[in-house]
Amino acid sequence: MADAAGHTSRWRDALGSLSARLLVAFLVPTLLFVAVAGSAVYQLARAILEEELGSSLSAIAAATASQVNGERMLTVEPGDDVDGTRTWRNLVRLLEGVREASGVRRVYAVDTQGRVRVDVGGGLPVGVEAPELARDRLELARVFAGERAASQVLFTGTDGRLYKTGYAPVRHEGLVVGAVAVEGSAAFFGPLQRLSRTFAIMGAGALAALAVIALLTARGLARPLRRLMDSALRIGRGDLTTPVPPEPTREIGVLARELEVMRGALESRDRQLKMMLAGVAHEVRNPIGGIALFSGILQEDLQAGAHAEAGEHVARIQREVAYLQRIVEDFLAFAREQPLARAPVEAPALLSGACELLSMEAASRGVAVDVEAAPAVLEADGSLLTAALVNLVKNAVQASPPGGRVRVSGEATEGRYTIQVRDTGPGVPEPERERIFEPFFTTREKGTGLGLPLARKIALAHGGDLRLASVPGDTTFILTLPLGGRAADVSSPR
């Protein structure tokens, strides 16, 4: 009981582990996909939008720089913003117009030393070095070399929003004398963040839905597996009569069918074993009783000096011992599990050899045995098939009346080789036909009832069959075998 409980516990732990593994198998890949794909899409969208914003701002800066007179810009000196000089006002007006038209936050112009000449939207006085330029040194180096550029990273303004700066060179007589900087808001970042949050919420919802699906799937798999587990445990506890219920799921249904086949085979073997034990006990009891009786009489005769009668009793005891030995040999032959030693076997030689082994017994009974076998080659275990045929021919000889004839024939038809053993005896009564292949069923006083079951077992092991057709005066055992190759891959007779 403790072992059964332990097995049950382990099975249930395994089913729980299966549910957990299915849950992990569903959720982990999805979680990784959502995280990786969401992050990748977000970063790609942000990079594209940042690049597009930088390109737009640098284009605005270039258009503005093309309108700025470099020579006049350099004439603006510290204090001009206080005095409101004409040159300074013209530059402010130009940059203010660009700012209003483009909707940017700030537009300012600097010389090559980074000193502010005009600042619209930033409020820096003329002549002060713009601190923002320190973070964009590499970009400014490209601008002062004559290229357009944009800051590589977003920065946070005093209002807490994200911004980006585009730069373009200001030229005078072909030389770069300064730069125009345009700061624009990264307004896309707010919707992009909202999109990211929406994606995260949708991902969480998808994960929750998948978790529910995984749990339902796990339960759907666990229920039939638990039923299979219960059936396996019942079989393990020795309950071989309760059928394994079928399952609708294809794969689990195959397992259920195979388990049911196994249960049926075990039940059949168990029933067969019980019959064999009961038969052996019944068959052994009689000769043992006879041996005990005759040995007692033998002892009395020896004590009385009746040596002639003692010899007869010894002969009877020997016959009973021989009968016991035959019971044991038949029992072992029927119960033994051994692999088939397949090899090419000539069918005519097989039939002739089996009949030759019974020639003396047939002659003593006055029964003729005729053999007519068509040529064919069987892939079979010759010794086992010989034993099966000997049992069939012996049964026919013993059933035939004196002067009778047993006909053994073989012919190949449709990939099968059919062997018929026919006798002219009284036939097998209808009630006995259904039991004639049962172990230990016999109508003879000294029969073990294992010859025909053993013959059928050998036939089935070779992928063939053995059946009976009987009417009064004509009884035929029909043995069919595969022709020219293995019909079934079996390790032993069943």
Automatic annotation (TrEMBL):
It is an enzyme of class 2 (transferase). The keyword Membrane applies. Residues 279-485 form the Histidine kinase domain. It is found in: Cell membrane. It catalyses: ATP + protein L-histidine = ADP + protein N-phospho-L-histidine. It is a multi-pass membrane protein. InterPro entries: 2C_sensor_his_kinase, HAMP_dom, HATPase_C_sf, HATPase_dom, His_kinase_dom, HisK_dim/P_dom, HisK_dim/P_sf, Sig_transdc_His_kin-like_C. Keywords: ATP-binding, Cell membrane, Hydrolase, Kinase, Magnesium, Manganese, Membrane, Nucleotide-binding, Phosphoprotein, Protein phosphatase, Stress response, Transferase, Transmembrane, Transmembrane helix, Two-component regulatory system, Virulence. Its main location: membrane. PANTHER family: SENSOR PROTEIN CREC. This is Signal transduction histidine-protein kinase/phosphatase MprB. It comes from Pyxidicoccus fallax.
